[in-house]
Write a structure and sequence with these properties.
Blueprint (H helix, E strand, L loop, with lengths): L9 H14 L16 H19 L1 H13 L3 H26 L4 H18 L6 H29 L2 H12 L1 H20 L1 H22 L19 H4 L3 H30 L5 H30 L6 H22 L5 H12 L3 H10 L6 H17 L2 H11 L2 H7 L2 H13 L9 H7 L1
């Protein structure tokens, strides 16, 4: 190596550097030089903020529905129909939004969806009859469905497979926090200023975030952080035979069945069985949902992220364990003594939310970049069609023929089925790619 005893020439320096690279195969010198996707963090922050507003808006109506019922002189069945038509609109528009999201720029459609959500909430101030309120609530479902399809697909193009669990865990932290804020802020504003003002207040942050997305968020290149997927994973028809995709979606549908039914009836359960007032029930549910849901979402994401370094099946194992472990505390909540109701409920909520981030990461990792929006649309359609569209009325029917304790307990069978489906789906989990690996494969 040394060309002479007096020093080192330029050629020797070059050889020395090459040797250093060989001797340090894991150093930066041997890795592909892949810069981070510009704007990824900005997109994550803005879309997570909008997701929080999304769920805040959704849970304002349950917080003020007694005031709405009193003003419009409507029945419980009509109150229930508001959510039914919301879900019908939500599911009905999903196939169209999936088709649009896989063919056109998603940023403009996210902005339109965010502004539509804000507009529908603002216009509630002028609603003075049940039919108009029903139409407004259904229109809100259209806006929320559009955002729910486009936003995860955009984030999947900013981040590679190995990073998506972490990113979608952050994105889904907004679910319990937004729901808790909807219950708490909606109830407080409704009680002190009227139920219409609670909807107006929720419209403001949505409009602001829509403007920020317009100014600061960039549209990522489709498949920018994706290793090449098999051809059948890049077609909509291929979703029907994609076992990894079906495992995550069907498992999630059964979780949604239980969680949706519990969310709808738990306040009534606390009032009827434990003797709490409506205000007390709301003040209990808000903190439990915020703290338990937030802690569960974060914990599940961290566990899945670490576990995924050993096996790609972690994105299915965590939701499976989440569903299975939640059954025991939920049963204790519904069938145990009153002294255990609140702690058991908090434990069940924590465990159910463990799988929120990983299950969405599993869905996006299972498909190719050209059908991600369609895959998310299919997930939204299936989890609500087989989940919380069915469970609330079914619980009501069972309760009428027995009692609310038994009715809520029977829905936990769905959690056990979800665990089984997730474990079966884990057998088909695709290999995870890091940012560097995905870029090198592109």
């Amino acid at each position: 190596m040394w060309c002479c005893r007096r020093g080192v020439c330029g050629d020797c320096v070059t050889r020395l550097l090459l040797w250093a690279d060989i001797l340090k195969p894991m150093s930066e010198a041997t890795k592909p030089r892949v810069p981070a996707v510009a704007g990824a963090t900005v997109a994550l922050v803005l879309l997570t903020g909008m997701n929080l507003v999304n769920y805040l808006d959704r849970y304002i109506l349950p917080a003020v529905q007694e005031q709405v019922k009193g003003e419009f002189h409507i029945s419980d069945a009509q109150i229930g129909a508001l959510t039914f038509w919301f879900m019908i609109a939500y599911m009905g528009v999903s196939p169209l939004t999936g088709w649009l999201g896989d063919r056109f720029s998603r940023k403009p459609m996210i902005i339109v969806a965010a502004l539509a959500i804000a507009t529908m909430n603002f216009l509630t101030a002028s609603v003075h009859d049940y039919a108009s309120l029903n139409f407004r609530h259904a229109a809100l479902g259209v806006g929320e469905a559009c955002f729910g399809v486009f936003a995860p697909a955009v984030l999947a193009d900013f981040y590679a497979g190995a990073d998506r669990n972490r990113v979608l865990t952050i994105f889904n932290i907004a679910i319990p926090v937004g729901a808790a804020l909807g219950y708490t802020a909606g109830g407080y504003i409704g009680e002190h200023h009227g139920w219409r003002e609670s909807f107006i207040a929720s419209a403001i942050p949505g409009a602001i975030i829509a403007i920020l997305i317009w100014i600061f968020m960039r549209e990522p290149k489709r498949g920018e952080r994706e290793a090449k997927k098999p051809a059948d994973k890049n077609t909509i028809v291929g979703l029907l035979t994609n076992k990894a995709y079906l495992g995550s979606v069907l498992g999630y549908a059964f979780v949604t069945f239980s969680l949706g039914g519990m969310s709808w009836w738990i306040a009534s359960f606390l009032q009827r069985v434990d003797g709490y007032s409506a205000a007390q029930a709301g003040s209990i549910m808000g903190p439990i949902l915020a703290v338990g849901g937030l802690a569960g979402t974060i914990t599940g994401g961290v566990i899945a992220q670490k576990w995924s370094k050993k096996t790609e099946r972690a994105m299915y194992y965590v939701p499976a364990l989440s569903a299975a472990l939640a059954v025991a505390p939920a049963l204790l909540c519904f069938l145990g003594p009153k002294s255990t109701t609140i702690p058991a409920l908090a434990c069940a909520i924590f465990l159910i939310f463990l799988g929120t981030g990983p299950v969405n990461a599993a869905t996006l990792n299972a498909v190719g970049p050209n059908v991600r929006a369609a895959a998310m649309a299919g997930q939204l359609l299936i989890i609500h069609l087989l989940g919380d569209l069915i469970s609330p009325p079914l619980i009501g029917v069972i309760s009428d023929h027995s009692n609310l304790r038994i009715a809520l307990s029977t829905t936990l069978i769905a959690l056990l089925l979800a665990a089984v489906i997730f474990f079966i789906g884990s057998r088909y989990a695709p290999k995870l790619t890091s940012t560097v690996e995905a870029a090198a494969a592109a």
